[in-house]
Structure formats: C-alpha cells, structure tokens
Design a protein that fits this description.
It contains 9 helices and no strands. It has 203 residues and is an all-alpha fold.
C-alpha cells in the first residue's frame, strides 16, 4: 500500500475512533466509577472485539451485511439492548451490598470488564460498517493481501487504543473540574443513565 492510501486510511480510522460512541462512553463510565486501570480492561476487550470484527470481515461479513441488511439491524438491536442492560446495572437494588448507599454496586471482575468491552465492540454498528464497507476498499486484492490486512487492522486498533487512552485519562480530570456540581454518590447512576440513553438512541 502506498503512503497516500495509508494516510487516508489512518485519518479515517482516527475520525472513527475518536467519534464518541458506546465504546468510548463505556470507557469513560468505567474510568469515573472504577478508575483508569479498570477502564483499560474494558478498552482491551473492545480492541479484541475489533480484531474479531476484522477477522469476520476476512470471512465475508462485508458480503453478509451488503446482501442481508436485516443482519446489521439485528446486530444493532442486540448491541443496543446490551447497552441498556449495562446502564441499568447501577440502578438495580439486587446488585447493591446490604446496607450500602445506592451508588455502591458489586464491582465486576476483570473478566467481566473485558467481556463488556468485547461485547460492545462486536455489536457496534460503527465498527461493523467500518470493517464491512470501508476497510475492504483499502485492503484491495492481489499480492500482499495478508500483509495489508494485518497492517491496516493493527493501525485501526492503534487509533482505537489512542482514543480510549485519551478519554480514560480525561474522564477523572473532567470530574475534578466539575467540582461539587455532581455528587459522588450519583456518578454511577448518572453514567448508567447516559449509557441507557445511548442504547435507546441506537434502537
């Protein structure tokens, strides 16, 4: 791949990665509620999900989406419902420790955080459309297909990681700048409400 094509792909990847969506909102929510290190676990799962999408593209996901528009809609619905599920968790009394304030919910395990990110990525229409429609145009065909595929996939994963790191690092700073305008006890519920609204918006 020539430098101009790779630069164009990189710019498209950066715009896609830094455009706020469910994955970015999940990272911000986890950073505010559980800390940066825990948020990185869900972001790692998100990148793993993107790699799975890239593999699915190689297996023909792009053809499936183009030939069966209902498949993309079904994936969109699954992703939206999962976001609503995640957003409602801080509000569920059953998840609160006995005698704990409303904002204290059972902390998810590292595996659960990783799977959150992976599931959001695997059902993210933005990622599916990127790998299903835009990605194949840069990969092309002919000699060097495998190396181009790997190089472009890693480039997109790198852009996604940069975006997640930026928002994860900025989330606690933004909370400090807000000062006392938002009670600490309300932060999980507020973050959950935003995730629910995003899921409803997808629906």
């Amino acid at each position: 791949m020539d430098a101009d094509s790779w630069t164009t792909f990189l710019l498209a990847s950066l715009v896609t990665a830094f455009t706020p969506g469910q994955a970015i909102l999940l990272a911000i929510s986890n950073a505010r509620e559980r800390g940066r290190s825990q948020a990185l676990l869900s972001s790692g799962g998100n990148i793993a999900g993107l790699l799975l999408l890239a593999g699915a593209t190689a297996a023909g996901l792009g053809l499936l989406v183009q030939g069966a528009p209902g498949a993309l809609q079904a994936i969109r619905v699954v992703g939206a419902v999962y976001l609503v599920y995640l957003g409602l968790q801080p509000w569920w009394p059953a998840r609160r420790a006995p005698g704990a304030p409303p904002s204290r919910v059972d902390a998810p395990t590292k595996r659960a955080l990783f799977m959150q990110g992976l599931t959001v990525a695997a059902t993210n229409p933005k990622g599916i459309l990127f790998f299903g429609a835009l990605f194949p145009q840069f990969v092309g065909a002919g000699p060097g297909l495998a190396s181009r595929f790997v190089g472009l996939t890693l480039s997109f994963a790198g852009c996604t990681l940069a975006a997640h790191l930026f928002f994860i690092m900025a989330a606690p700073w933004a909370s400090r700048r807000l000062g006392g305008s938002v009670r600490p006890a309300s932060a999980p519920e507020l973050g959950g409400a935003l995730v629910v609204l995003l899921g409803i918006g997808l629906l």
